[in-house]
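BUG: 3D viewer hangs when loading the predicted structure for this chain

Environment: internal workstation, default settings.
Expected: structure renders.
Actual: progress bar stalls at 90%.

Input used:
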Amino acid sequence: MAALAGTIKQIAGEIPANVGWMLRVDGHADRQRLTGRSGYATNWELSAARAITVVKALIAEGVPAEHLAAAGFGEFQPIDLGTSDEALRRNRRIELKLTER
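Structure tokens produced before the viewer hung:
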């Protein structure tokens, strides 16, 4: 996280002050049903928690909170439609998108 935060802060320093930008942190989950032991009622909550965890870590490393957003997409944007363990692992992910505010 420290290396990622360093890169984000470097890029932020190169963006003109009048450009409203944000880094959207997207959390994703696989399509497996959650068990009661997971601590989350739905994959939406799990994916949002993943994104929020990354946002908090970036803030702790000095990335300005006003330039961060966390979004949870649940299991609804898979990158692999397979059912193998490997396919499910690929769908449990974080994506970063530098965009305008």
